[in-house]
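ok posting inputs for the pyridoxal-5'-phosphate job
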Amino acid sequence: MPRKPKTVAARPFRYNPDGQLLCDAVPLETLAERYGTPLYCYSASQVRERLALFRKHFKRHDHLICYAVKANSNLSLLRMLAREGAGFDIVSGGELERVRRADKRAVARTVFSGAGKTAGEMDLALRAGILLFNVESEQELELLAERAAKLRKKARVALRVNPEVFAETHPYISTGLREHKFGIDIGRAREVYARAAKDKWLSPEGVSVHIGSQIRSAAPFGAALARVRALVEELAEDGIRIRSVDAGGGLGIDYTAQLGAEEFDAAKEVTEYAAALTEGMRGMQVRLLLEPGRFLVAQAGVLVARVLYRKRNGAKEFLITDAGMNDLIRPALYGAHHEIVPVERATADDSQNAIMDVVGPVCETGDFFARDRAMPDVHPGALIALLDTGAYAMSISSNYNSRSRAAEVLVDGKRVRLARRRETIEDQLRFEE
Ligand SMILES: *Cc1c(COP(=O)(O)O)cnc(C)c1O
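and the output
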């Protein structure tokens, strides 16, 4: 019987008795004064805590956690994770270089996913000596074989199979239709493995799956692994010994949980996830690879913005902030919900909620963070925090409207490190004439 798991706080942000919102032990207002806004602020201790939570739940298995770099690719964050012994899941040559600069030794713990790897990227990864290529098509396998032969470097490969676990209507997948471009049909996998096994420069060692992102139920993960287990058994009959199974990432979080309420219990989520995976891979003697992204970093981050204006257009009221969709595109791109809270509770009157749209300065109607949201009575000059923006936020930011990217700080208890300085217009203009 598993013990009742200890509750782990959903977020590292809370108000002190003076009504100041803290990240770990540091008031966000202090950081905003020092580094300006918009400002991404991450808690290193929270990310470590999430990593430890994963480790604890999989400690009975030989496993490696390969953090999905695309969720948040800040170098200081990667360095911190590398120091903790994490591996990485990359999807480009650029991400490989980030991992290499974070920690050279972490390259050997790196898996390379993605449906569109180029020959150049394969060469980089072969030379660097990554752990495994997650190959997503037969054509990619052919190209990899060619590059490996050319460089005389053996490529360790896993085929990323599409286990067809989800009905098209499954509600927990936010990228359902896009999934179709990923992976190899599991029904064809045996044939493709046989092809790989014949090649002197390919070493088929793994099977990988990644069934989507922001999945809030454990069952589909278990179902996917059960399909993988059947494949691993078939491959054994074919004389192909699979050493690692990569369960991908995808574990979701509750973006609607109120700050301070314990509605989201990270420990419980991981307990259920681990139980489903363990059940799915029962009896398999393989190393388990995991590629969590969002779950490790999303709730460790906030985007701090300053309110510029509050205005009324007819019946509608708008809060215009100095952060825009170029900083945080998730509401526009995915219809994502982010909780928004005042950074100084004293400056906001909780009893005076007003229904407002919270928007940015970018010239797009899609430039919004919240629509018709009950907001405390904040006024121009006040700071607000957009919660759960540690994942797929800064890493998808852009320079749209020629806006310079925000700064990022990494907080660890009382310590603060500027993890990325604010961009300047000179940074933006450097590549142009
Ligand atoms: C994006 C991605 C992940 C991480 O997904 P999360 O939902 O952030 O956990 C893991 N593996 C692959 C192959 C991915 O593309």
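notes: The pocket of pyridoxal-5'-phosphate is lined by residues 68, 70-71, 89, 113, 210, 213, 248-251, 291-295 (CB under 6 Å). Residues 167-178 have pLDDT under 50 and may be disordered.
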